[in-house]
Every structure is written in C-alpha cells, then in structure tokens.
Amino acid sequence: MKPNKLREKLNAGEPTLGTHIHTTWPSIVEVLGHTGEYDYVEFVGEYAPFDLHDLDNLARAAELYELGSMIKVDAENRAYVSQRAVGSGFGSVLFADVRDPNEARECVRCVRPDTPDDGGTFGVEMRRFAYMGYGGTEDYAQALRDVVVVLMIEKKSAVDQLEAMLAVEGVDMVQWGGADFAMSIGKPAQYEAPEFKEAQE
Prior knowledge:
The chain is α/β, with parallel strands linked by helices. Helices cover 42% and strands 14% of the residues. It is built from 10 helices and 6 strands, in the order αβαβαβαβααβααβαα. The protein has helices at residues 5-11, 26-35, 52-64, 78-88, 101-111, 138-145, 156-160, 162-166, 178-184, 194-200, and strands spanning 18-21, 40-43, 68-73, 92-95, 148-153, 173-176. A 6-stranded parallel beta sheet has the order 1-2-3-4-5-6. Helix 4 links the parallel strand 3 (68-73) and strand 4 (92-95). Helix 3 crosses helix 4 (78-88). The radius of gyration is 17 Å and the shape is globular.
C-alpha cells in the first residue's frame, strides 16, 4: 500500500499546502512535484474534462514525487467518480455542493469500506489498492478508512448547518466556495454584501 500523504500530515497535526490543476496532463503534476513545495495536488474534476485513464495517470505522477492527490467531484455522480478516483490512487476526495449533514454522511460512505463496522459502500477496485489482488485485504480496508474527506461549503443550507456538518464522523476538512454561496443567497458575485462577508467569516 502506498502511504496517504495528506492523511499522514493531518494525523500529525501538520499544516498542508496544495494547489489546483484543471489539466489531465501528468507532466504538470510532475512539474509541481519537482518544486518540492506542495504536499498535495488537487485535480478539479468538477470543472475539467477527463476519462478514467486520466485518473490513473494523475495518481501515478503524484506518487512519483510523493505528493498527495485530491479530486474534486461533481455532486451529480459523486459516488461513482469518487470510487473510481480512489481506486486509481487518489487519497482524498473533495465533494462539491454538499448541502446538509445527511449528504455529508453519504459522501463519507462513498469512500469507506463496505464492512459492518465501517458502513461504507466501497467494495473492491482494481489498480492502486488491490491491483492483482481483487479480493482486498485488511490493509486495503484501512487504506479506504484513511481516504481524506473534504466538503465544499458553498450553499446557504451548508452554512446554516455548518456545525452539524463538521460533526459528521469522517469529515476531515472543508473548503469555502464563495462564488456558489453568493449565487445560493441570490447575490451572484456580490462579494461585498454583508450576508456574504458574514458567512465567509
């Protein structure tokens, strides 16, 4: 099993630095790795075209430089894409458009093992965690438990229920999505609006 770099940093209480990419060109990940400045790279799959082969190649490139890898997935097909990305080697998933604690719990379930104790929906996938070992192992199940779950806080309902969403077991990090939040309160791009500034703070 490859170590989950982002999980290791979080468990050690260390800060992390990441950057976003919209391209599926693995050489860009290698360039970032060469800098030695980043702990992880986030592939913003919600906005970028990609196929399943691209996910394998991005994860491989990150592993060459011991970079953590995160994918941002769209809400519509979040379970499928997150599971395929984790199966490719991504160690963390950023879930877009999460609106309430129930959806937060579903996001966690997407990447946790389908065991009685974990209550996840993830079975066995090829390539990274179990390539040529389809049945999986306890190490494989632990690798799924270690997947870092990140939620986008970008809807009014999420801001209104933020404490309850943060209390969901398995949620590790959040990112603020100001543009979507402004849209959700009927003030698109009005980043100086009092309601926007209060929510952001």
